[in-house]
């Protein structure tokens, strides 16, 4: 089934301003459904729930005095569960990925003692690794392939042992787009240790379906702003038996529940946007029916095919420009098969002899919105910032092959 890009574009009112947006990793466009839902949720969050009896097998009679805002938060947990293939009682909500990971690191201190080991990667941003590098647990580092940006799974055979209690990996690199073989790493972790595998799916979630059971992940973290959602994030656990093993960040919460990791109340208004962004992805193909979880899987199947087509065209087009160097794809270090690696529709590139800031300005003057590549351990190791920086591109469901052709024409005037 062909992905209907025209229909997807119609869900974003903001696209009528004339710019071509290629910066979803930095400031994703917000679907109209999400902005309307957030506005409505903020207005209604303080109202009391209707006490009229509910009907249907999924109906729940609200408690006396319960506000609509609490229902918005509860609905957000259900939506996140549908997104990753879990249940709502395993979902922890928070204002950002950084806050949730700091809370998790604090809660895991009883497990991350001096005699234990934590495996982190130099692929992740410092905001992801720093909360776990300050615990009492010894830290060992998994290294990326500097030629392709890939995180090889074989190295975890040497890094993981019986003392390992936590392994943290990304599902995909946010700036190079390389996809991690999470299932292969999970198999190694389970074979060699009792460690928990934490997967950062924030870059992966806007493009592909997440099945944490198929991954073999113990914890998945997802940030919603790269999807076009509100400034919120979620941690999802493998099962509820993990909660009693964690110290409470919120001592007033049930020690066996997800709420023990939530410090303070979540914004009911923004929670309304979480439900809306998940629903948005479930209707990217208007021809689909069934439950939301079913629609999400089918919708992401079409979106993944669209993303792969865009990625192939983007790489092939930029490789045709002799002075454009695609990080992880171009050059002898990457090898001839680098372009065939599994990637989400994101990449970073530089133009030989032209500072990235100059390239960025040229693209903007031609209506193309990209970003200067931010500081990242992998990009630093690749020497990106020694040569004037690079440009990062990330595509969205509404992008077309024509957008890539426009980018190629502008770069050709520089390269």
Question: Which terms would index this structure?
Answer:
globular, 7-stranded mixed β-sheet, lyase activity, alpha/beta, Aspartate Aminotransferase, domain 1, 415 residues, Aminotrans_V_dom, single chain, 4-stranded antiparallel β-sheet, lyase, 14 helices
Distance between the ends = 37 Å
What is the overall number of helices?
Answer: 14
> In the CATH hierarchy, what is the class of the domain at 5-29 and 294-412?
Alpha Beta
The mean pLDDT is 92
The spatial strand order of the largest sheet comes to 2-8-7-6-5-3-4
Query: What does the radius of gyration come to?
Result: 22 Å
Relative helix content: 25-40%
For the largest beta-sheet, the strand count, sense and barrel status come to: 7 strands, mixed
CATH superfamily of the domain at 5-29 and 294-412: Aspartate Aminotransferase, domain 1
* N to C succession of SSEs: HEHHHEHEHEHEHEHEEHHEEHEEHEH
Structural class: alpha/beta
Low-confidence runs: 54-59
Assign the CATH architecture of the domain at 5-29 and 294-412: Alpha-Beta Complex
- Name the overall outline: globular
CATH topology of the domain at 5-29 and 294-412: Aspartate Aminotransferase, domain 1
Task: Give structural notes.
With 415 residues, the protein is α/β, with parallel strands linked by helices. The chain is 35% helix and 13% strand. It is built from 14 helices and 13 strands. The chain has helices at 5-9, 24-27, 32-44, 68-84, 97-107, 126-133, 156-159, 182-192, 212-215, 268-282, 292-319, 356-365, 377-381, 401-412, and strands spanning 20-21, 91-94, 117-121, 138-142, 164-170, 196-200, 219-223, 233-237, 324-326, 346-351, 368-369, 371-372, 391-394. The strands form 3 sheets. It has a 7-stranded mixed sheet with strand order 2-8-7-6-5-3-4, sandwiched between helices. Strands 9-10-13-12 form a 4-stranded antiparallel sheet. Helix 3 (32-44) packs antiparallel against helix 10 (268-282), helix 4 (68-84) runs parallel beside helix 10 and helix 10 crosses helix 11. The two termini are 37 Å apart.
């Amino acid at each position: 089934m062909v992905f209907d890009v025209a229909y997807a574009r119609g869900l974003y009112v903001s696209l009528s301003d004339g710019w071509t947006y290629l910066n979803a990793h930095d400031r994703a466009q917000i679907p109209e459904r999400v902005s309307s839902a957030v506005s409505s949720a903020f207005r209604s969050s303080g109202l009391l729930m209707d006490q009229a009896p509910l009907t249907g097998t999924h109906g729940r009679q609200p408690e006396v005095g319960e506000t609509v805002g609490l229902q918005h938060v509860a609905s957000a947990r259900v939506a996140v569960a549908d997104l990753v293939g879990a249940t709502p009682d395993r979902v922890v909500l928070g204002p950002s990925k950084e806050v949730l990971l700091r809370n998790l690191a604090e809660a895991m201190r009883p497990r991350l003692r001096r005699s234990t080991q934590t495996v982190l990667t130099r692929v992740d941003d410092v905001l992801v690794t720093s909360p776990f590098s300050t615990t009492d647990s010894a830290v060992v580092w998994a290294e990326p392939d500097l030629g392709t940006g890939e995180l090889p799974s074989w190295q975890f055979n040497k890094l993981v042992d019986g003392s390992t209690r936590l392994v943290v990996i990304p599902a995909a690199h946010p700036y190079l787009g390389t996809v991690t073989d999470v299932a292969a790493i999970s198999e190694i972790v389970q074979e060699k240790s009792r460690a928990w595998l934490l997967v950062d799916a924030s870059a992966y979630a806007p493009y592909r379906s997440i099945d944490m059971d198929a991954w073999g992940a113990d914890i998945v973290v997802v940030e919603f702003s790269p999807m076009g959602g509100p400034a919120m994030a979620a941690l999802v656990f493998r099962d509820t038996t993990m909660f009693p093993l964690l110290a409470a960040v919120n001592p007033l919460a049930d020690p066996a529940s997800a709420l023990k990791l939530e410090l303070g109340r979540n914004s009911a208004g923004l929670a309304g946007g979480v439900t809306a962004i998940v629903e948005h992805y479930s209707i990217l193909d208007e021809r689909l029916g069934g439950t939301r979880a079913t629609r999400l899987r089918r919708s992401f199947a079409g979106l993944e095919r669209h993303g792969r087509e865009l990625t192939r065209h983007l790489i092939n087009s930029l490789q045709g420009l002799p002075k454009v160097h695609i990080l992880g794809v171009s050059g002898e270090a990457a090898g001839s098969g680098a372009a065939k690696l599994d990637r989400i529709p994101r990449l970073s590139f530089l133009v030989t002899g032209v500072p990235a800031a100059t390239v960025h300005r040229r693209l903007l003057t031609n209506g193309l919105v990209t970003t200067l590549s931010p500081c990242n351990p992998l990009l630093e190791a690749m020497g990106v910032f020694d040569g004037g920086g690079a440009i990062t591109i990330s595509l969205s469901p509404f992008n077309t092959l024509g957008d890539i052709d426009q980018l190629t024409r502008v770069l050709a005037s520089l390269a």
